[in-house]
Request: fold
Amino acid sequence: MASGASVNAFLLLPTPLVTVIALVVVLVVIALVAWALQLMQAANDRREFSLMLAGCMVCSAAVGLATVMVLTFTSPVRLEARGLVAPETGPSGVSLDAIVLPWDDSLTLQGEG
Reply:
């Protein structure tokens, strides 16, 4: 229940604040990638495999953070709350009312007679 409240609170943040948060997250991702590259360079210089693994872990954390950021800031609910996407007005999907199946011939014969 608390997560739903936090999602609703995030949707109500003003646009400039959301932009600042997005820019801070982008800077964090860039810093993580730079750190990962430094770790991998140190691993190459010292011939240590553990530093290479650490660099890979930091880089994968940066990719994960970037993925979560993109999914959060471009979710359909968020775009709809900002008025960038028209809300759905009716039920979505395909109605099966107009489909006549081959074994339902008795229904069409009753309508003709």
About this structure: The chain has five helices and no strands. The two ends are 57 Å apart (CA to CA).
